[in-house]
Design a protein that fits this description.
7-stranded parallel sheet, 332 residues, globular
Length: 332
């Protein structure tokens, strides 16, 4: 029986991955922090290891179970003002996992990064046409250096270059905006949770790519089976402008859709002002995240990755949105 270590095992994607691996008969080691909620992995036949990606001794403890495969999903998404912690978890933590994997002779590591590290879609010269989606070979968009999480995940990807030079087998997967049931922390599906609880009064120019959590899990597992060493695979689904996205949510929930679009220049100034004066101008965290994305199109074309990983075409997005909304209603 193959033993697999999953970091970030209690998270939205990590818990879904643990469930699927258990159903397939693998022996799973779940690595998570002491403060993590166990709600999404309750009842799973996994060996839990409490630790932190900044703590080498706890990482060594996880590897004492001799995993053959490692799925490194653990990461910190929100930095606040503590950028040192963000970098130490996302970059330093990845380096520590690679070092421990090297010492333990792990056969393969699947690193989950983010599609944002590939940049954003290029705007078409014809404003009436959709932006040109990002593909797997797209370079880094330097305008996103002001996005600490994206920057930290790109630096984590750079760590693979050193590891591969030492003969390690690493595959990278880059999902975008993951939706579906089970996001207990509301980190990935915050915009949908916010719409469910208190619909926004505005939308912004731009758009995102939506993919169901189950498709991401299948992509990670297929990367374990079919991924090429050193390659990164784009796990993308359906592109939606923010106006379309909120329109879909409004239709599915019976809630009026926001009608006012904030100009991009105003949204950017508002976001910058809120960051400088967080106490003087209180705004919900989810609204701030929305303002941060103003004017950017996170559109992605992952057809080549799906073909290489033997994955079917993306699922229709409306049922996935409905499933997410239903889960929030049942788990308030």
């Amino acid at each position: 029986m193959t033993t697999i270590l999953v970091t970030g095992a209690t998270g939205f994607i990590g818990s879904a991955l643990c469930r699927e691996l258990c159903e397939r008969g693998y022996q799973v080691i779940g690595f998570h922090r002491f403060s993590s909620s166990l709600k999404m992995i309750e009842g799973l036949p996994i060996q839990r290891v409490i630790g932190d990606l900044t703590d080498e001794s706890s990482i060594e403890n996880a590897f004492s179970y001799h995993p053959e495969i490692v799925f490194h999903l653990g990461a910190q998404q929100f930095s606040g003002r503590n950028l040192t912690r963000l970098m130490d978890v996302n970059v330093g933590g990845t380096r520590r996992i690679f070092q421990a994997s090297f010492n333990a002779h792990v056969k393969r590591i699947i690193l989950m990064s983010s599609a944002v590290t590939m940049g954003t879609a290029e705007l078409s010269p014809d404003r009436h046409r959709s932006p040109i989606p990002v593909g797997e070979t797209h370079g880094w968009d330097r305008t996103l250096e002001s996005w600490p999480f994206a920057w930290s995940k790109l630096l984590a990807e750079y760590e693979t270059q050193w590891a591969i030079a030492y003969g390690m087998d690493i595959v990278i997967c880059n999902p975008m905006f993951v939706i579906g049931p089970g996001d207990y922390y509301r980190r990935n599906t915050g915009l949908i949770a916010r719409f469910h609880d208190k619909p926004p009064k505005f939308f912004i120019e731009g758009g995102i790519n939506l993919i169901h959590v189950n498709e991401v899990v299948q992509g990670l597992i297929q990367a374990m089976n079919y991924g090429e060493k050193g390659r990164r695979y784009l796990l993308s689904g359906t592109d939606r402008s923010f106006q379309q996205f909120f329109g879909d949510l409004a239709k599915l929930s019976g809630t009026p859709a926001p009608r006012m679009q904030l100009p991009t220049s105003f949204s950017n100034r508002l976001y910058a002002y809120r960051n400088r004066h967080p106490d003087l101008f209180p705004v919900e965290k989810t609204d701030i995240n929305l303002l941060r994305m103003a004017g950017k199109y996170f559109y992605y074309d992952g057809k080549n990755s799906r073909l290489a990983l033997h994955l079917p075409p993306p699922q229709p997005i409306e049922p996935a949105l409905q499933e997410t909304l239903n889960w929030f209603r049942e788990n308030k």
